[in-house]
Specification:
Layout (H helix, E strand, L loop, with lengths): L2 H13 L6 E2 L4 E6 L2 E5 L3 E5 L4 E5 L4 E2 L19 H13 L4 H14 L4 H10 L3 H15 L8 H9 L8 H10 L13 H25 L2 H8 L2
Antiparallel strand pairs: 1-4, 2-3, 3-6, 4-5
Helix pairs in contact: 2-3, 3-4, 3-8
């Protein structure tokens, strides 16, 4: 079997990766009002190929949905149609087992899965490819390396769900209160298949973009005329 044939088979397998993907409904609890801080209160699952590839955002993950640059919120707030994709994206931007390009590809494909129009998802994708989003990625990297955690322990999650609203709560105050009672996860371990899912998502994103480019070229009269003359 030649290298080219092997590569073709691998590409086709990966290319089929997201032909039947599903994403569960997001369930979050707001913990702080301004800036808004949320906690995932039920696992968010993104599955493809009948569960062969899976990304799980665990209960207790803290998100501010900030990996979508706020200047884009006028167009599509992450509290609306992009909520589930935004949580996935925030999780991947914080956890960083996957590369930024892979996390952005997951975001794009998740937006497609929940039904966002071609125009909206491409506008948002362009936004997460800007220097603003890149800064968010590196800010998260620095915070993680400094020892910050964005995961509450399961038992502490229940404490938060049973607690009353504190209008003065902030991300830092929430983390400090949890740390005082050992409610933060200090060494979070992502699911084993996370990296493989991200790699496959990036390949699928590239495949869809190539397909869209080819369709656009084939509809161009100059392209059609060129091939007709051969």
């Amino acid at each position: 079997m030649t290298y080219r044939f092997k590569a073709t088979i691998l590409f086709l397998v990966i290319g089929c990766f997201l032909t039947s993907c599903t994403i569960t409904r997001p369930t979050i609890t707001q913990l702080a009002p301004s800036p808004p801080i949320f906690m995932v209160s039920h696992p968010l699952r993104y599955e493809a190929n009948d569960g062969e590839f899976e990304i799980i955002v665990p209960v207790g993950f803290i998100t501010d949905l900030a990996s979508i640059p706020s200047p884009l919120w006028w167009w599509e707030s992450p509290h609306e149609g992009t909520l589930a994709p935004a949580i996935l994206h925030d999780y991947l931007y914080w956890e960083q087992t996957c590369l930024k390009d892979e996390a952005d590809a997951v975001m794009y494909l998740a937006m497609k899965e929940v039904g966002l129009s071609w125009g909206k998802r491409n506008l948002i994708y362009a936004g997460i490819r800007t220097p603003i989003a890149l800064k968010s990625w590196y800010d998260n990297k620095a915070a993680r390396e400094a020892g910050e955690s964005r995961f509450f322990k399961q038992a502490y999650v229940q404490t938060l769900l049973d607690s009353t609203i504190n209008s003065e709560a902030t991300l830092l105050s929430l983390q400090n209160e949890a740390s005082a009672t050992e409610g933060m996860v200090s060494n979070y371990q992502a699911s084993r298949g996370l990296k493989a899912a991200c790699e496959a998502a990036l390949n699928e994103y590239r495949r869809t973009q190539n397909s869209a480019y080819n369709k656009a070229m084939q509809s161009d009269p100059r392209f059609v005329a060129l091939h007709a003359s051969r």
